[in-house]
Amino acid sequence: MSAALIVSGLRAGYGGKPVLHGVDLAVAQGSALTIVGPNGSGKSTLLKAIAGQIPVQAGTIAMGDTDLTRMSAQGRTRAGLVFVPQEGNVFRNMTVRENLRLGWDFHHRGAAGRLSVKLDAVLQLFPEIKPHMHTPAGLLSGGQRQMVAVASAMMLDPRVLVLDEPSAGLSPRNARLLFEIIDRIRQTGLTLLMIEQNVQLGLSVAEQGLVLVMGHVRHRAPASELAQDTSLAALFLGASGSHDAPATTVFE
Ligand SMILES: Nc1ncnc2c1ncn2[C@@H]1O[C@H](COP(=O)(O)OP(=O)(O)OP(=O)(O)O)[C@@H](O)[C@H]1O
Ligand SMILES: [Mg+2]
Questions:
Q1: I need a surface site. Which of 28, 46, 76, 92 has the fewest CB within 10 A?
Q2: Which residue, by CA, sits nearest to atom 27 of ligand 1?
Q3: Considering only CA atoms, which residue is closest to atom 25 of ligand 1?
Q4: Do 181 and 218 lie in a common domain?
Q5: Which of 20, 41, 45 to mutate to test the pocket of ligand 1 (most atoms within 8 A of CB)?
Q6: How far is the CA of 46 from the centre of ligand 1 (A)?
């Protein structure tokens, strides 16, 4: 497998206190890996360390042949690793068009001639936001805003797109709609690393799944296999488990 992203022995945390205790993962070129796990298990910490938002205490992060471990967050974005955090991922006072434009400006500096071509290409993936181009992002619904966040990331031509809980706070209908779009993006051959609290939805668009528990990789398996693993329900619903929980439970 040709890996687009390889994380080895990653330790990271806050104020010297480790949260991740040696995490290994690899995402194959053009494939998707979905991370699931209980609240507080270190999922967001893992993505923040990969994106360069918190320092790495030990281990390495590489994208293809590029070592990202000591690179700034901005350097990683320029190298093609684009992170969409769970919150604060759009500028609410700016219009949708201005949000999309920001990514372009950051990445292409001065090559404004091709902006309209890129905008058209991205809007083809996100037709739902097309009618709202001149609306301030803060006035959109949660689902629309999340689409703007992902669309803005796509303006940066990511080699690896990293999403933290894209469906958080969305109604089931909007979450499904967003995942249809994520699936559409997948078809373009993009490499994707994602956390998703809606286990079934998150695994449905991925080849591989990974379960993170207390900063350790507890389990990794093909996503379709993991989606059918009913023992995951016990893990998410507490030590006593819930034998009543159907395999389709949304673990929140
Ligand atoms: N900024 C921070 N400063 C100090 N500790 C933090 C900080 N952010 C998270 N933590 C701690 O790190 C641990 C892992 O948190 P993290 O946000 O990575 O979990 P998570 O798996 O993403 O959880 P959730 O499913 O609730 O989003 C928790 O114990 C949390 O309290
Ligand atoms: Mg989190």
A1: 92
A2: 39
A3: 39
A4: yes
A5: 45
A6: 10
Whether pLDDT at 225 is above 70 = yes
Residues 107 and 216 in one domain: no
Q: Which two tokens stand for residue 122?
A: 């991205």
* Pairwise CA distance, residues 59 & 38, whole Å: 23
Cα distances (Å, whole numbers) of residue 165 to 47, 146, 252: 11, 10, 11
Residue 237, pLDDT > 80, answer no
Span 57-86, mean pLDDT? Answer: 95
How many whole angstroms separate alpha carbon 111 and alpha carbon 124?
21
The environment of the single-atom ion ligand 2, i.e. residues with CB closer than 5 A, is 43-44
Average pLDDT, the chain: 88
- Calpha distance 164→207 (Å, rounded): 17
Give φ, ψ of 21 to 5 degrees. Answer: -115, 55
> What's the domain count of the chain?
2
Residues 73, 163 share a domain? yes
- Domain range for 20 is 1-80+159-252
Strand partners of residue 7 = 25, 61
Q: Which amino acid is present at 79?
A: A
Contact yes or no for 193/20 (Cβ under 8 A) = no
State the pLDDT at residue 240: 36
Ligand 2 centre to CA of 44 (Å) is 4
- Nearest ligand, measured from the Cα of 42: 1
**For residue 58, with 0-12 CB atoms within 10 Å meaning exposed, 13-18 middle and 19 or more buried, which class applies?**
middle
Angle at 162 between CA 136 and CA 41, to 5 degrees: 110
* Count of C-beta atoms within a 10 Å radius of residue 15: 4
